[in-house]
Amino acid sequence: MFDFPYFITMLPDIWKAFQETVVMIGIALAISIFIGLPLGVLLYVTDKGLFWENRFVKNIFGFAVNLVRSIPFIILLVALFPLTKILVGTTIGPVAASVSLSVAAIPYFARLVESSLRDIDKGVIEATIAVGATPWMIIKDVLLPEAKSTIIRGITLTVISLVAYSAMAGTIGGGGIGDLAIRFGYYRYDNTIMISTVVILIIFVQLIQLIGEQFAKSLDKR
Amino acid sequence: MLEFQNITKIYESKNKQVVGVDNVSLKINKGDIFGIVGYSGAGKSSLLRCVNLLERPSNGKVLVDGIDLTQLSSSELRTARLKIGMIFQHFYLISQKTVGENIAFALRAAKTPKNEIHKRVKELLAMVGLTDKEDVFPAQLSGGQKQRVGIARALANNPSILLCDEATSALDPKTTLSILKLLKQINEKLGITIVLITHEMNVVKEICNRMAIMQDGKVIEEGAVYDIFAQPIKPLTQEFINSVVSFEIPDEILKDVKGQVIKLLFKGEVAGEGVISDTMQRFDVKGNFLHGTIEYIQERPLGIFVMELQGEKSTVDEAKKYMEQRGAVVEVVKHV
Ligand SMILES: Nc1ncnc2c1ncn2[C@@H]1O[C@H](COP(=O)(O)OP(=O)(O)OP(=O)(O)O)[C@@H](O)[C@H]1O
Ligand SMILES: [Mg+2]
Global pTM? Predict the structure, then answer.
């Protein structure tokens, strides 16, 4: 069932696919942190009773986030082909795939950030308001540090979701591990590749989970 | 000086209004340690939080040193808040920052020059007795130590007022006492006005000079702590006073008492025992102590005695009148 010599000959292909997956996920993760983190903070601080309470802003962004999140990824992927074409010039390859992955991951991560911030004791925020701190100080020195560990867990979750999405993106031209699995495992009944990709993904996800958790724990001073 | 003028705070929730504070007017003088007492839900926190506008009053004004905070812009309000320290029952320190960083945070809010921050942090830590804890995280501190950090943070920018919302309610009696001592020290050394909320009369008795009692959002009684302890007027106030200086004589005992039972109050300099023994010598009455104590409130003695007087009714009346002339407050607990 598992053909080891064949596996060895396929290693360069597997390695290439893995690299593509990492590129896809890496770009998407960087973008979703870069945009999703401020967006999550915005969703939180414009909420009722907080220092930048603003129903209008909250509703607009909340709606946009929900909108994207309610579209199944496979549909989002196809729907974003024109945008991808404009941004990257092509719809093929890991960089192109990272566009739709980012669009899907931004609202996901933003919601995770928002919920991490919600876990902070309101009293701590009030105490710093009472001290006379500016909103920026509170965001930078209270909200983000206090939610640091849960935000890191949120990043771990986002990466894991991205791994799943990247496999889907792979099937329609994105490349990567998912593409490999479908091409060989599904169309050619190639069990060796199928098993290899599954094992690689399992190890990859476990590793991310482990590293993320260690990191989150080591940073938490509670 | 801190002045509340007709403060009302109404909370609007989904389909009903809750009155948190109901038309409270109160003056708190500079240098006072002012205690606000009341049961849960009486509106103490709501009132206190109107001082630094953590809660905006629905009506009325709060004047801090003559300035109406409700009229300030948000940046002016932040500046005003630098001068109003606040500490909380649950401390509310930034858990992911060290003790030093927590205090430095307050200093940075006041735009203290970077090179002065560390020196000031050291000073503040020394003041609250935590010199060696600068680099420790709050989770590694005891409750009392956390509150000390809270106090250091609140005092960082030399406030004129310190607000304490149940600052000792999460602490054991011994730690409570040490925190109260620290507050008193701060009040005396730095001249900071302290407003503290509590439901423990002991706290008030320990450090406050003036107090107010709140019920259903209203201030029902207000005055010098000594006077209120000596002669509480409202039933609720009496209930609170009784929780620390109780003169309830068990019914069992009252039933067996033959004479008239009176309660005598000697304020301050009047030496109660002297008056009582003089009375016993002068009049043909037999006195029998049922209860008695001398409490020290604000370092002023308050003598309270409950005794039975036996004798002719007219003589007993004369004896009571004599004691009143000598400065005692006489109250009949049980007629013959
Ligand atoms: N944010 C809020 N929203 C709605 N109602 C509130 C809010 N805060 C307080 N209240 C209500 O206002 C009233 C006074 O509450 P407050 O917290 O001031 O009482 P308190 O005297 O401080 O009580 P405790 O001793 O329990 O702290 C209560 O009936 C309470 O339910
Ligand atoms: Mg309260």
Answer: 0.91
